[in-house]
Amino acid sequence: FGYGLETLWYLRLFQVWAGKTSGWGIIAVNGHSGYMDMLIYLGVGGLTILCAALAQGFVRTLKRALSGRTWLDFFPLFVLVYILVTNITISYFLEFETFHWLVLVTLLFLPSVILSEKKPA
After folding, report:
1. Do the beta carbons of residue 83 and residue 95 sit within 8 Å?
2. Distance separating alpha carbons of residues 77 and 59, to the nearest angstrom
3. Closest CA to 30 of 114, 74, 91
4. What element of type H or E holds 77?
5. What is the C-alpha separation between 97 and 116, in angstroms, rounded?
6. Contacts of 88 by beta carbon, 8 Å cutoff, 6+ apart
7. What is the DSSP string of 1-53?
8. Which residues lie closer than 8 Å to 47 by C-beta, 6 or more apart?
9. What's the DSSP call for residue 118?
10. Rounded to the nearest 5 degrees, what angle is found at the Cα of 95, between the Cα atoms of 11 and 59?
11. What is the Cα–Cα distance from 14 to 37, expressed in whole angstroms?
12. Which end of the chain is more exposed for a tag (fewer CB within 10 A), N or C?
């Protein structure tokens, strides 16, 4: 049970406290970590569900990459790793409702069949 989706960062007292404790002296408006933001917003349960979904997507894309023959089979793994690593320093999950979300959702629900030139889709 988290604090609620983005509600914590709108509280003026919390912004000032986060700015002072960070040592930057500026008002903080987000956690600059997608995982930390999800923990604050959704709590331990929500972060656990998110990590389980991401782990399942990682396993699927890894299987696809290891059993594939072309660079297109490796591409989903590269993109997912990029999103997972980049989300450590900037909140990709909720701050940017753009191409990253589309790619992430596509990768998480990507069929596990191998697509190649010799096999029909």
Report:
1. no
2. 9
3. 91
4. helix 71-86
5. 31
6. 33, 34, 35
7. --S-TTHHHH-HHHHHHHHHHHTS-S---S-S-HHHHHHHHHHHHHHHHHHHH
8. 35, 38, 39
9. S
10. 125
11. 14
12. C
Any idea what DSSP says for residue 97? -
pLDDT of 77 higher than 70:
yes
Mean pLDDT of 44-53: 88
pTM above 0.70, yes or no: no
CA–CA separation, 66 vs 40, rounded Å? 35
Query: What's the one-letter identity of residue 59?
Result: V
Judge whether 8 and 16 are in contact, CB under 8 Å: no
Phi, psi values for residue 30, rounded to 5°: -160, 170
Answer left, alpha or beta for residue 26, where phi above 0 means left and psi between -120 and 50 means alpha: beta
Mean of all residue pLDDT scores within the chain: 75
According to DSSP, residue 114 is labeled P
